[in-house]
Amino acid sequence: MGLLTAMTWPKTSLLDLLNDAEESEQDTFDVIHLEPNSGRSYVVAVIYGEPDQVDSIAEEIQRLKQRMEA
Fold this sequence. Notes:
The chain is α+β, with helices and mostly antiparallel strands. It is about 40% helix and about 20% strand. The chain has helices at about 15-25, 50-70, and strands at about 30-35, 40-50.
């Protein structure tokens, strides 16, 4: 089970999530897609691991963001 799916929504804070990732000895790549009652949707991702791996994923996400804004 991933960090995001193990959360107690909405009781878990972002700080709780970050602490859980840091306490884990495993690299983490967890994504959850949520659709609140507003009818909108959002994605939350937690990526925790070696800087070279995490940095490359962050760069790809930034490129996707720039494409969406264009």
